[in-house]
Amino acid sequence: QSIFKKIVYPLLIMKRKNAFCCTSTSSVSLRLVFGRSGNMYLWLTALAGLAILFFFYIRAHFPYFSADFWTVLRSVGLGLRLLKYKRIKPFYSILDCFLDAVKSHPDKIFLHFEGRAYTYGEVDRQSNKVSRALQAEARLKEGDAVALFMANEPSFVWIWLGLAKLGCPAALLNFNIRSKSLLHCFSCCGAKVIIASPELQGAVEEVLPTLREQGISVYLLSESCSVPGINALLDKISQASDQPMSRDLRANVHIRSTAIYIYTSGTTGLPKAAVVTHERVWASSFLQAACGVTTEDIFYINLPLYHSAGFLIGLVGGIERGITIILRRKFSASQFWDDCRKHDVTVMQYIGETMRYLCNMPKKENEKNHKVRIAIGNGVRPDVWAEFLHRFGDIKVKELYAATEGNIGFINYTSKIGAVGRVNFVHKFFFPFTVIKFDIEKEEPVRNSAGLCIKAAVGETGLLVGKVTQRSPFVGYAGNQQQTEKKRLRDVLKKGDLYFNSGDLLRIDSDNFVYFQDRVGDTFRWKGENVATSEVADILTMAYCVLEANVYGVKVEGHEGRIGMAAVTLKEGQDFDCADAYKQVATYLPTYARPRFIRIQPSLEMTGTFKMKKVKLVEEGFNPAQIKDPLYFLDPEKKTYVPMTEEIYRAIASMEIKL
């Protein structure tokens, strides 16, 4: 307003009174210089004043206008590219994108791993050798699924590419799973071949009898193997030709074909194989571009490649950008920044835990001496986020929200601390969603008298659901129609509509920022991993003394997610056998899924529909001063459960005991 009063308004008044030439000496000079063009000068000045006024008005009332504008522009461009890939024939896949990169810059470094660099050309040739070896040995043909049971290493990349050249989808197995879970994950994708890293040979041998009974071909990435039923593969790969593979081998692959299977615990039961189509691969690969990553960036992956974050956003996104990727076997807080400095890393990935680990490291003088400019990930707490920026400099944190099998996701492209995303009209047009009222006690949506769901108010926490459309499909889980159906929610806003049930509680404020609140159902998240409570309960009841187990996640001060805890009842006449319970969970569950606290109860409280009640147990936590039931703590050093004491509780609260 002050700008308008001081600049624009006087100029307009002067023009109207035709007094421009006599207002001052300077005005007379201007009139003499410009003559009849003085009117034009006046209008240009007025327009400039209005533009300044508009700029300050937008900045005051729409502080995120610039970020919204450029994000919408970028999103439209990426959307048009996806539309092009859907229609182009023959089908153009991310593999074709990689092959184009090989042609344009074969000598550019694609992967750095443990001191060794691999160019785009080298990885391409190595993947050709993999294709030919598997074609000859395993008799693979287009459409055959192959399970990869491997840790982060370059061979993971070229084996996946080699399979893609044969038109074979890869099932990315979590290398932490064992026994029952391993067999389940393998069988549900319908694979007839499994390829494992040498260090995982022991886990494969545990289930080898069952694999052999089912006629599964088992390959180990080694030069030789003396175990009957396990075939060495590395020697065959080294002897194979590296000549390009014919495109005809994958001639029938299209945009809706299955590209990979990624496992997610979802809300209940054993891990489920989320079907990831080529369309979804392309959409996920665009996240780097949406976050501002360019072809000149260097991307650091320390998250597991069996996850959608490491594989789809990191590896596949890197291929789409044609960049160099620094691949690490696993995350190391002590070596993280040294790696970034050594390799000139400009983009990093994170989960909430990794950021916290970095912030917990001792402070050093050169903490801001790096080239990292963008951090892409999810699950970071607001206080850790703020501390991270304070410690390590002006890094644009792009917090994401998405589910591997879901049809809706968000990006916080403004870097507003605490938000997992921001809604704009383009996003909602392409990926329609809503947040509905949810009854936490009953664990179901609230419906009105007409049987329809009720939209949550602005700022109110509710269940996120994404509308299933042609543009935003929900494919579901391989070999598990029952669980696929459980994720479908019908009659949401009108009779007959269909939505994907995210199982997550979110809140959207009046400024259109999205905040993650909690996860519903029988799942908790710890160390960046989703854990299905029913699977943990099944393992606990294998302990001879345990009759029933009610597993849930509880908050721990200073930690992201929820750590595993179980309320159990004992068989008649039995005491809690600490050693046997530890043996079961240590043998059959990965570290992050093991219940760290056990609560012994005389009986488990049930709902009217015979579901175990968890809300009260979650609220009560594991404080021995407030819980009268016997409590136990899993002590990894003693390799057993020990009675939970107030001293242990204080040590956990002060972080003397590391969880």
TrEMBL record:
Its EC number is 6.2.1.3. The keyword Membrane applies. Its main location: membrane. It is a multi-pass membrane protein. The chain crosses the membrane at residues 40-58. Keywords: Cell membrane, Fatty acid metabolism, Ligase, Lipid metabolism, Lipid transport, Membrane, Nucleotide-binding, Transmembrane, Transmembrane helix, Transport. One of its GO terms (cellular component) is plasma membrane. Residues 543-611 form the AMP-binding enzyme C-terminal domain. It catalyses: tetracosanoate + ATP + CoA = tetracosanoyl-CoA + AMP + diphosphate; a very long-chain fatty acid + ATP + CoA = a very long-chain fatty acyl-CoA + AMP + diphosphate; a long-chain fatty acid + ATP + CoA = a long-chain fatty acyl-CoA + AMP + diphosphate. Gene3D superfamilies: 3.30.300.30, N-terminal domain of ligase-like. Belongs to the ATP-dependent AMP-binding enzyme family. GO terms for molecular function: long-chain fatty acid transmembrane transporter activity; long-chain fatty acid-CoA ligase activity; nucleotide binding. Residues 100-423 form the AMP-dependent synthetase/ligase domain. It comes from the Eukaryota. It is found in: Cell membrane. GO terms for biological process: long-chain fatty acid import into cell. This is long-chain-fatty-acid--CoA ligase.
